[in-house]
Amino acid sequence: MIKNKFLYNFKKTSIFFLIKCKNKKEVLHFIDVAIEFKTY
Fold it and tell me: What highest taxon heads this organism's lineage (predicted)?
């Protein structure tokens, strides 16, 4: 349950970030960090 809630919030944050962010390098970095974070 907690994991699902986290993923839901994470997706919302990602979408907001992608809309807000105009720099593609920043987006790619954000995705890399997200992937690293998921592995832990």
Answer: Bacteria
